[in-house]
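Quick note —
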Amino acid sequence: MRAVVQRVTQASVSVDGDVVGQIGDPGLVVLLGVTHSDTAERAAALASKIWQLRIMRDERSAAELDAPLLVVSQFTLYADTRKGRRPSWSQAAPGPISEPLYEVFCSALADLGAMVQRGTFGADMAVSLINDGPVTMILEG
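Predicted structure written out below.
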């Protein structure tokens, strides 16, 4: 499982021009990619790590601030660009595998007390955000 985590002052995700999720200041945007070997346990562990990671201002965690999270599925995080100019998506898990793990990840955050907003799994989404810091990290779980 791979996540790009960005600290933001605001963010939203839209599908066909309709906002389906949005958060305010301070918060985190999590772009989440799933690969074939990922499990529910990995998803829950990564959710916990992100929730407790001290990347907010003054070395605080999202948990300490009750900061909201916007989680967006992003299979392109597993693009393989080593050969040629066309990315291969073979390392990205297909929807029947990745969608349930995306749901486990979001539910694990909610179970920890996070306010979670979501994109629409599998949709063509437009993500808008203002990165704060800027702080952007890539985590593997």
